[in-house]
Structures are given as structure tokens and as C-alpha cells.
Specification:
Blueprint (H helix, E strand, L loop, with lengths): L6 H5 L5 H7 L5 H4 L7 H29 L3 E9 L3 E2 L2 E6 L10 H12 L6 H7 L17 H8 L3 H4 E6 L2 E2 L5 E6 L2 E6 L10 E2 L8 E6 L21 E6 L7 H4 L1 E3 L3 E9 L33 H9 L47 H17 L15 H18 L13 E9 L3 H11 L3 H7 E20 L3 H15 L4 H48 L15 H4 L5 H9 L1
Parallel strand pairs: 12-14
Antiparallel strand pairs: 1-14, 2-8, 3-7, 3-10, 4-5, 4-9, 6-7, 9-14, 10-11, 12-13
């Protein structure tokens, strides 16, 4: 506040506009309400101040409107790292059921649903499989479990896996986790389930990742009986490379690997290793049988293993593939519960104790809810506590419902706020060569023709230990909004935050002086007026007493004296009594 300038101004109350104008730090106000009469100069200053205030408010409204639009910007960067967490690798044989493991009871229950067989065709189909027909008096089982069928008749990794190495060290079926998908019984390497440490790699290139040799077992493929949407005509393995937080959707996102070829899959990660090893998405495996072997590493006693597992705890870096939640973006981090049926206005449901949110997990939960609501059951690979559909429900309801949902894309799943993606490049060469065919034949104890039709090699590795960071940031923060408002305030009206406090202080002075002062001044004046009127009425009454005669007094109306002096009934009553 500026000091007062003169005795006249000092005598004025603080609520006087001229006192406020002469002391306010806002530019131009002192020229408008200064001493003197109205003049052209004062009018020009008033117009300039009003124009500046209007311009300032217009600019502030534009900045606030821009802030409420919640713009964001995306930053893309590429960095290097000394080590990266190796992704989860899921493998599925394109053939879901082995012909040698099917029984007449399986055909009775699941023949129509899975193979499109009529009951009269069971014997013919069994002969096509090289199996004897059902014996006379055959009685099917009273119940049937689809998950047990796929677990028993699906391809076994013990039979398919011919060779396994990770970073040059041997591995085996015990390093894979069995998982059910829509393709049947599949296996995931480096899934991180049951608290297992996630494997890492410290170098890029061939030989520093996962190296597999697999047998697709064409002799176990089911014969093509009818042409429908579920009939596979190809042979080989489907592979999906994904993060440990996401469930495998291998029927839609898997890469095909063909026998007779060595396939190289080069990956680039779009997320740095997390500060804590990510929790695996176990919701889709809750109803699955446990793996037949413990999830341990065969090289667990070697020094190389200790080095590999220790690397997963070194160099923690926070995840950088991040997106903004509403209102700046459309990402979500709310876990979904497959047993919870949301309201129509809440398509994503409510928070639950489910694993971390992922796009594929959201789609899987959405499909589960849809099938459970429409069919009253779930498919064997779906999470949740609903009962598994029987074969007839598979055929009549579950499969058509899933196909219809995929065609119309009925799941509204936003991007996760933090996720891991892998860019992949695929190349392949023929194998084996003529010079290596005989050697492999002796090593694998298979014929050269069998190896050419059934054996494939697969290598999954990082192209380099660099990663891409994709991060969404708020384009306009609250601090920037306040800074812009302050800059506009200083530019147009020469004010600051303290000027606002001065205005508020002046308004408080006005309220105290004009409003509260009016009521406080009115009460003493009323009391003083009543006292004076009472004294005047009493004085008049005394002066009239000596003039009274002994004769009859003419009637005097009550309170005749005080009616002309006061309107107060209380004063009238007191004077009359006296």
C-alpha cells in the first residue's frame, strides 16, 4: 500500500474510494478517482483501465478454456540399456487334439461340437484314426469335462520339444508353464508365475535369447472331416511374444512357424524393465490344471544361472511406456473382475483384486462376461468362477457368441496407462540342409523325410538392447495456467496476487464501514431519541400541574402530549401513567 499524501486524505475513512485508489498498486486507478473534478484526462484514464481489464479477462477466459480442453503431447525417445527382461513366449500346436488320445467317449460327448461329427459317423471316424470302433454295449460317462479333454489329448511339450536353450544354457519342459487358450493346450516360457524370477538378457542378437527345436507331430493331426470355420488346414506352431502382464490371445495375435524352416524373430521392446518384476496375469489360468513339473530351471545350480537371475534385480528403471488417464487421455489402470457384471453405463466394471490391467486382459474379461451372460457358462480358457461349458454349449452358444462378438467388436477397452509392447521382425531359412539332414536323422532318431515335414527351429532374441519410450504428458499444466494469468495481469492492468488481496481488504473495509456501521450507529441514535422524548414529555406534564383547577377537568385523550412528540407506544404508556 502506498503512503497517504496529505492531511485531507488522512482524515478520510479507509472505505473511501479515493483513499483506496491512491494506495492501490493497480495501475491507472489513482488517475480515475484522484482529487479534482471530472475532466477529459480522467475520462481517458477510465476508458484505458476498462479496456485493459476487459482485454485481461478475455485472455484469461481463453487460457482457462484451453486448459479445460485437456490437451496432451506424446514424447517418443530411444534409449540404451545394459539388460532387458526377456518377454514371455507362448507356443501352441495348430492341431488342438491328438488323434491317438481320442476315445469313443470323447466322440460321444464332443464329436459334434468340436469335429462336426454325427453319431452315425463315429465308427467311420475312429477307423480313419486307426482306432477300433466302440465295443458293443458301450456306455458313455455320466459327465464330461472339456478342460480334462484338452489336457489329456492336447500335444505334450515333452514330446514336441527336441532341444531348448536360453542364452546358450540348456532348458527343458520344466521351464514352460501350461496354459489354456482358444487353440487348446499351450505352453509359455518365462511366464513369471508362482513367483518365479523373470529371465533377462544382457546382449542382443542370435544366441542371446531363446533357441528351440520342435516336432509338430503331423502323424497326430486329426483328419479334416468337414469344412467349417474351425477346421485347420495348415501345419506348424503358433507363437506369441507378449509381456508377463498380458494373457496370450494367440489365436488372433500369434505368428505362424512352419516345419522345415528355421525362423528368426527379432524383437524390440517398447518399455524399460520395471522397478519390481511385474505380476503375471493369472486370471486366465485359475481353472487350469497345474503343470506336471515344477517351475524350476535345470541350470539352477550353475554359476550362469545365478548370474541370469541376479540380473533381473539390477538396474531398476521405472516403466516409460505410459499414457494419461481421463480427461487428458483415454487410458485405464482399473483391474477387471470376470465375475462382476457391470451396469450398462459402466462398461469396464469396478476395481477388483484382479491382476494389473492390460488391453488383452480387458478383452478376455469382456468376452468372458458376454459368454457367461448369454450361455450361463464360460469356455475353458476364460477366467472367472462360472462353470465350464459342456460340449453342446460350446457348439450351440459359446463359439457362435465369441465369433459374433469378434466381428462386431463389442468390447470397449481403452489402452492401459502403462504397458509393454514388442516390435517384431520375422525371417526364415529352409532346414535341414542336405549336408545336415543325415546328422539330424541320427541325432533325433527320425527319418530325413520325417524331419523335413515335422521339425522346425525357432529363435527369439532382441535385436539390440535399446528400447523405445512412449510417454504422454499434459500439454498445459495448472502451473502454466497460473503463470499465464499472472503474465496477462501484469501486462494489461499492472496487478499481482497482492493486488487482489488489496481489493479484498478494501471490500472488507467498505462492508465494515457502510453496512455494519449503519446498524451500529442506528442503535445508539434510537436509544438517545427515546430518552430525550421521555424527558420532554415529563417536563411538559410538570408545567401543567399548577394550572389545574379544583373543578372538574375536561377529559383528555390518553397520551395526548406524547402523540405529538413520539410514536413509541412504550413512551406513550410511561407518560400517561405518570
Amino acid at each position: 500500500m502506498k503512503p497517504t499524501s496529505g492531511p485531507e486524505e488522512a482524515r478520510r475513512p479507509a472505505s473511501d474510494i479515493r483513499v483506496f485508489a491512491s494506495n492501490c498498486s493497480m495501475h491507472g486507478v489513482g488517475h480515475i478517482f484522484g482529487p479534482g473534478s471530472l475532466s477529459l484526462r480522467r475520462g481517458m484514464w477510465a476508458a484505458a483501465v476498462v479496456l485493459s481489464v476487459v482485454t485481461f479477462l478475455y485472455q484469461v477466459a481463453g487460457r482457462v478454456r484451453y486448459y479445460r480442453e485437456y490437451h496432451h503431447q506424446t514424447a517418443l525417445d530411444e534409449r540404451e540399456s545394459h539388460q532387458l527382461v526377456f518377454p514371455a513366449v507362448t507356443l501352441c500346436n495348430i492341431n488342438a487334439l491328438r488323434r491317438s488320445r481320442l476315445t469313443p467317449n470323447d466322440l460321444h460327448w464332443a464329436g459334434a461340437a468340436l469335429l462336426g461329427l454325427d453319431p452315425a459317423e463315429h465308427s467311420t471316424f475312429l477307423r480313419a484314426l486307426g482306432r477300433p470302433p466302440a465295443p458293443p454295449g458301450f456306455m458313455p460317462s455320466p459327465t464330461f469335462d472339456m478342460a480334462q479333454l484338452y489336457d489329456r489329448a492336447g500335444h505334450s511339450l515333452d514330446d514336441m520339444l527336441l532341444d531348448c536353450r536360453f542364452r546358450g544354457e540348456p532348458c527343458g519342459p520344466e521351464n514352460f508353464t501350461m496354459v489354456f487358450t482358444r487353440m487348446g493346450k499351450c505352453y509359455t516360457f518365462n511366464s513369471g508365475t508362482d513367483g518365479a524370477e523373470l529371465l533377462t538378457t544382457i546382449r542382443g542378437g542370435i544366441g542371446n535369447g531363446l533357441d528351440l527345436m520342435l516336432d509338430v507331430q503331423q502323424e497326430e493331426y486329426l483328419p479334416v472331416w468337414k469344412d467349417d470355420d474351425e477346421t485347420p488346414f495348415e501345419v506348424g506352431i503358433k507363437v506369441q511374444i507378449h509381456s508377463q502382464e498380458e494373457p496370450p490371445i494367440i489365436d488372433q495375435l500369434g505368428l505362424g512357424v512352419s516345419p522345415g524352416f528355421q525362423t528368426f524373430i527379432s524383437c524390440q521392446q517398447q518399455q524399460v524393465p520395471s522397478r519390481v518384476p511385474p505380476h503375471p496375469l493369472q486370471a486366465h489360468t485359475n481353472s487350469n490344471p497345474k503343470p506336471s513339473a515344477p517351475q524350476t530351471c535345470p541350470w539352477a545350480s550353475s554359476q550362469m544361472t545365478s548370474h541370469i537371475l541376479a540380473e533381473s534385480l539390477l538396474n531398476p528403471v521405472p516403466p516409460q511406456l505410459s499414457f494419461l488417464p481421463p480427461p487428458w487421455g483415454d487410458c485405464s489402470s482399473v483391474s477387471l473382475n470376470p465375475n462382476y457384471e457391470p451396469e450398462p453405463s459402466d462398461p469396464l466394471g469396478s476395481p477388483s483384486s484382479s491382476p494389473p490391467y492390460s488391453l488383452m486382459g480387458c478383452r478376455l474379461v469382456c468376452e468372458t462376461r458376454y459368454v457367461a451372460r448369454k450361455c450361463g457358462c464360460r469356455m475353458m480358457y476364460m477366467p472367472g468362477g462360472a462353470p465350464v461349458c459342456n460340449p453342446q454349449q460350446y457348439k450351440d452358444c459359446a463359439h457362435p457368441a465369441i465369433d459374433a462378438m469378434l466381428h462386431k467388436d463389442g468390447c470397449a477397452c481403452p489402452n492401459p496407462c502403462a504397458s509393454t509392447r514388442y516390435a517384431k521382425e520375422l525371417s526364415m531359412v529352409r532346414m535341414p540342409s542336405r549336408s545336415a539332414a543325415r546328422f539330424l536323422s541320427r541325432k533325433l532318431n527320425r527319418s530325413e523325410a520325417y524331419i523335413a515335414e515335422n521339425v522346425l527351429a525357432l529363435e527369439v532374441f532382441f535385436e539390440a538392447l535399446n528400447y523405445e519410450t512412449v510417454e504422454q504428458k499434459k500439454a498445459y499444466e495448472m502451473s502454466e495456467l497460473l503463470g499465464d494469468i499472472g503474465g496477462q495481469m501484469g501486462l494489461f492492468i499492472g496487478a499481482s496476487l497482492l493486488t487482489i488481496l488489496e481489493i479484498l481488504d478494501y471490500l472488507c473495509e467498505v462492508f465494515q464501514d457502510k453496512v455494519l456501521g449503519y446498524f451500529w450507529n442506528r442503535r445508539p441514535s434510537q436509544r438517545h431519541s427515546s430518552t430525550n422524548l421521555l424527558q420532554e414529555g415529563l417536563g411538559s406534564h410538570r408545567t401543567q400541574v399548577p394550572q389545574l383547577s379544583l373543578g372538574p377537568r375536561p377529559p383528555t385523550p390518553p397520551c395526548a402530549v406524547t402523540k405529538t412528540l413520539s410514536a413509541s407506544h412504550r413512551t406513550c404508556y410511561l407518560v400517561t401513567r405518570l
